[in-house]
Write a structure and sequence with these properties.
Radius of gyration: 18 Å
Number of domains: 1
Helix content: over 70%
Strand content: under 5%
Order of helices and strands: HHH
Number of strands: 0
Shape: elongated
Structural class: mainly alpha
Length: 65
Amino acid sequence: MFLFYSNLLMGEYERANSAAERSFLGALADIFTPANFLIGLVASLVGYAAVEFLRSKLWDGERSN
């Protein structure tokens, strides 16, 4: 989630062409939306499931040797 929101925040400043044109609180207000939270949550759950699946496959492979 941290990397997702960090990327969104950097994008807000990149699109503004200058950090001086945009306040930090204004950028935060633009990125912390329900839609962005849902996207981050789903991506986190998919990533967690993928890592756990791979970890369980590797763990089972080590136990059988």
